[in-house]
């Protein structure tokens, strides 16, 4: 069973996306049952449960709610509704971004599910809405300290892969019918990026080279329309090509064997916080924070959201940089935090 429909809306976890291409496939795994000394078969048996795949392509119009699942817990379920065909337990299997010169930023997403597809296909018709798309021409880069340097970037692709597989136990289900898997297993999670430049460089140590950068998309006239991608891994491959009447092309590949992004801490602003008081600061990628320190002093903290942390000002540090640590590594605040110890000043007796 296969459905294809262009320029239509789809709902993912009750969020509406206007897509330029949607494909929904639904496959039963059937094997022929051969008899002894026979080379043909007239009956079949199921070797697996139903496997479904939803593929969608759309242009970025600002913050992409699906991109948040790249750094989220892979066990988060996704529901989908495609013209009244729907599923309730899907998993983000692939998320990719393609950015080409003078073109809108396009996202491609694969969601897999292992359940019966419900409903009846009932397409609806409505006028196409106008949107302001994010464009590659408005991209800016910020590169991590100590990273391989990228210059003259012509285009790039970003891809997240999540290995999700169903597990079925013996003697489960009703007869030969198994509605859902007994368990889901999760394998490798990777983020990779391919960056095309026109600069030739042969630098590639045998142990690879650290490469980290943040790719920022922002609409030039509407600052609220923005998105960013972070890659923090190792450069592992370079490809060069040149031909008659063709420009030099250098393709640089980065691989990151985790889906965490390094925390990014915004400017702290005024601090001077009394010991034991709460202090909140903003940034991004805070949802998986493991530790917060001011210099070497560890702080109690609360994760308010992916973009805000609240700490308890420690008693035994007067000033220093704030460090936030997650599985991807440790990041430092751009400016120094200051404590307020005026109440602890020694009184004068003169």
Q: How many E strands? A: 24
Quickly count the helices. Answer: 1
User: In terms of structural class, how would the helical and strand content be classed?
Assistant: mainly beta
Average pLDDT level: 80
- Radius of gyration equals 26 Å
What characterizes the major β-sheet? 14 strands, antiparallel
Coarse shape: globular
Short description:
This protein has one helix and 24 strands. By secondary structure, it is mainly β.
Explain how this protein is built.
- It contains one helix and 24 strands.
- It is 1% helix and 51% strand.
- Mean pLDDT is 80; it is low at 345-350.
- It has one helix at 68-71; strands spanning 2-5, 8-12, 15-19, 21-27, 30-32, 44-46, 51-59, 78-82, 85-99, 106-113, 139-143, 153-167, 183-197, 209-218, 226-241, 249-256, 264-265, 278-284, 291-294, 297-299, 301-305, 308-312, 319-326, 329-338.
- The chain has two domains: 2-256, no CATH class; 264-344, Immunoglobulin-like, CATH 2.60.40.10.
- The chain has 350 residues and is mainly β.
- It starts with a strand and ends in a 12-residue tail after the last strand.
- Strands 1, 2, 3, 4, 7, 8, 9, 10, 11, 12, 13, 14, 15 and 16 form a 14-stranded antiparallel beta sheet that branches.
- A hairpin with a 2-residue loop joins strand 21 (301-305) and strand 22 (308-312).
- The protein is globular.
